[in-house]
Design a protein that fits this description.
The chain is mainly α and 328 residues long. Helix content is 31%, strand content 6%. A hairpin with a 5-residue loop joins β1 and β2.
C-alpha cells in the first residue's frame, strides 16, 4: 500500500481576510508623497449627499494656494463643465459647510467676494489657538521646629541664641510651558465691524405745492410702464414723491428725471426702490439761481414824477420838503 503524501495541499487556500491583494474590487497601488500633495478627509471623498462634481471641485479648491481666484468664470476656464454646473456645485459645498462666500466692502468703496474653503465642515476658527496650561503652585515644606535647649549645670544660664529657621527647599524645576506665537487674523473669521452710519435723508421741497407732489407721484407710477424692471409699491411711491417734487422745484423736466432714474440699470435689479432713492440723492441738481427783478416804478402823489419804490407814495424830493411845508 502506497504512503499518502501529506505535503501536497488537497485544495487551493482561501484568501486570508485583510490580505494586500483582494480577490475582487479596487486594488490600491500607493506611493508615498513627499511634496505637492493635499490631505482630504474621507467625510468629503465619500460624502453621501454631494455630487461627484462637487466632491472633485472641493478637492481642487483645497489644493489651491491662498489668494487664488475661484469664481465661476475662472473655474469654467479651467474645467470643461458649464457655468450652471459649476455654480450648482458651489452651492452644494456652501449648503454642506465646505465653502463660504461673503461680500465685503473695501475702504475705497469697492465690493468684493471673500471665499473661504473649509477642510472640516462646522469649524468657525481657521486657526485654533491652544489654551496654555496653568503652572502648578509649588508646595513649600514647613520649617522644622528647633529642638529645646538643654539645661546647663551651671547656675548662671548662658544667653539664649536666636533660633534660625531652616531655609525652605527650592521647588522642583518644572518644564516651562511654551507660549504659542500669536497667529495672524484669518479673513474667514468675521471681525467685529463698526455700525454703519445712517443713510442720508431724502431731499424735501422748500414749498411742497400739491401740484408738484401730484406730478411726482404720477411720474413714479408711470415708471413701470416704461421700464418693466422697476416695480414700486404704494409705500415706495409716497416715500419717494417729495424727493421727485424737489427736482421739479429746481426746474428739472419730467424727461430729465425719468432719464436719470432709468438710465444704465444693473442686471438683475433686486432693490429698485433703494436704487431710485440713491439716485434721487446723489444726482440732485443744484437749486436754481433767482433772477434779478428791478424795483418797480411808482408815480409821485404830489408832483406826478416817476421814481422807483416797492410801495406807492411821494418821491424823495417831495418827502424831504414835507417838513418845510408843514412849518409854513
Amino acid at each position: 500500500m502506497d504512503t499518502q503524501q501529506v505535503s501536497a495541499p488537497s485544495r487551493a487556500p482561501s484568501p486570508v481576510p485583510g490580505d494586500a491583494t483582494p480577490s475582487s474590487g479596487v486594488m490600491h497601488i500607493n506611493s508615498r508623497h513627499t511634496s505637492h500633495f493635499t490631505v482630504v478627509g474621507n467625510h468629503l471623498a465619500q460624502h453621501r449627499e454631494l455630487s461627484l462634481l462637487a466632491i472633485g471641485l472641493a478637492t481642487h479648491i483645497q489644493s489651491l494656494p491662498a489668494g487664488t481666484k475661484i469664481g465661476i468664470k475662472p473655474l469654467t476656464e479651467r474645467f470643461p463643465d458649464s457655468e450652471a454646473r459649476i455654480a450648482a456645485a458651489l452651492r452644494e459645498l456652501e449648503a454642506h459647510g465646505y465653502l463660504r462666500r461673503t461680500r465685503e466692502r473695501l475702504p475705497n468703496g469697492r465690493v468684493i467676494t471673500r471665499t473661504c474653503s473649509y477642510n472640516q465642515p462646522g469649524s468657525t476658527n481657521a486657526h485654533p489657538v491652544p489654551t496654555p496650561r496653568r503652572r502648578p503652585k509649588p508646595i513649600h515644606p514647613a520649617p522644622a521646629a528647633a529642638p529645646a535647649p538643654a539645661l546647663a549645670p551651671v547656675a548662671t544660664p548662658a544667653p539664649p541664641t536666636p533660633e534660625v529657621p531652616e531655609a525652605p527647599a527650592p521647588p522642583a524645576p518644572t518644564a516651562a510651558t511654551p507660549t504659542p506665537p500669536p497667529r495672524p487674523a484669518s479673513p474667514c473669521v468675521p471681525a467685529p465691524t463698526a455700525p454703519k452710519p445712517p443713510p442720508p435723508p431724502l431731499p424735501q421741497p422748500t414749498n411742497p405745492l400739491p401740484q408738484l407732489l401730484h406730478a411726482a407721484t404720477a411720474l413714479l407710477t408711470d415708471l413701470h410702464r416704461r421700464t418693466p424692471h422697476i416695480t414700486l409699491t404704494e409705500r415706495d411711491i409716497h416715500h419717494l414723491a417729495p424727493a421727485v417734487a424737489t427736482w421739479f422745484e429746481r426746474g428739472t423736466t419730467p424727461a430729465a428725471i425719468r432719464q436719470a432714474l432709468t438710465n444704465d440699470l444693473p442686471q438683475p435689479l433686486r432693490f429698485p426702490a433703494k436704487l431710485l432713492r440713491h439716485r434721487l440723492i446723489a444726482l440732485l441738481p443744484p437749486p436754481t439761481t433767482p433772477t434779478y427783478q428791478p424795483t418797480p416804478l411808482q408815480n409821485c402823489d404830489r408832483c406826478d414824477r416817476a421814481f422807483r419804490s416797492p410801495t406807492p407814495g411821494n418821491c424823495h424830493d417831495c418827502t424831504a420838503d414835507e417838513p418845510h411845508l408843514l412849518s409854513a
